Amino acid sequence: MREILLDRRRALLAALVAIAVLVVAGKVLLRPAQPALPRPVRVAGPATQTRAATIYVDVVGAVRRPGLYRLKDGSRVADAVRRAGGPTPKAQLELVNLAARISDGEQVVVPRRGAGLAAGAGGASSPSGPVHLNSATLEQLDALPGIGPVTAQKILDYRDDHGAFGSVDELDAVSGIGPARLAQLRELVAP
C-alpha cells in the first residue's frame, strides 16, 4: 500500500509540474506582441511654448502706467492700453486703433488731447514726431504728404495681412507707394 501512495504522490507531483510548465509556456506564447509604433517622443516643454507665446510691448503717452509690458502673442492695442492701467482723462483714444494686433517690440502711443492741434492752428500742420506705421490710424496716415485715404487704407490692410512693419522700407510693398514716395515719407514715419 505504501507503494501505491508513493505512486499517487509522484503522479500528483508530476501533474502539478506539468500544469506549471503549461502556465508558464502559455504566458510566454500568448504574450502580446511588441507595438508596431515606437514610443512617443516628448517635444518642447511648457517653458518653450510660453516664451514663443509672449511678446513685449512699450506703452507710452496718455496712459496711467507707461512702460514695457509682457503680453500674449496675438494681443490687441486695447489689451496693451488696459495693461498700462488704462487711458488717462486727457487721452485721445479716437486716434488709436484699439483693435489692431500688436507684435513683439512694438511701441503703442496713446496721444494726449490737443497735442497735435497746436501746430494746425496756423494753417499747415507739421507732425510733432514720426507717424508710427504699426499704430497709426487711417486719419494719421491720410495726413501724410502724398498719401490719400485710399493709400492709407492700403497701408492698414497691409499691416493687418502681414503683421507689424519691421522697417520703413516695407512700405515699398504697399500698392501705390513707389521709391519716390518712400523717399518722401522716410523722415516722417517710423515702424
Summarize this structure as a short list of keywords or feature phrases.
single chain; two-stranded parallel sheet; DNA polymerase, domain 1; 2 domains; about 190 residues; 3-stranded mixed sheet; Ubiquitin-like (UB roll); alpha/beta
Describe this entry's structure for a reader.
The protein has helices at residues 2-29, 46-52, 77-83, 138-142, 149-162, 179-185; strands at 54-61, 67-72, 107-110, 131-132, 189-190. By secondary structure, it is an alpha/beta fold. The chain has 2 domains: 48-116, Ubiquitin-like (UB roll) (Roll), CATH 3.10.20; 127-191, Orthogonal Bundle (DNA polymerase, domain 1), CATH 1.10.150. A 3-stranded mixed β-sheet has the order 2-1-3. A two-stranded parallel ribbon has the order 4-5. The longest helix has 28 residues, at 2-29. Mean pLDDT is 80; it is low at 117-127.
Mean pLDDT: 80
The general outline is rod-shaped
Summing up helix and strand content along with how strands pair, one would put the structural category as: alpha/beta
H and E order: HHEEHEEHHHE
Q: What top-tier CATH class of the largest domain fits best?
A: Alpha Beta
CATH architecture of the largest domain: Roll
Beta strand %: 5-15%
Largest sheet: 3 strands, mixed
Neighbour order of strands in the largest sheet: 2-1-3
Low-confidence spans:
117-127
Radius of gyration from the alpha-carbon trace, in angstroms: 36 Å
Question: What is the name of the CATH topology of the largest domain?
Answer: Ubiquitin-like (UB roll)
Continuous helix count: 6
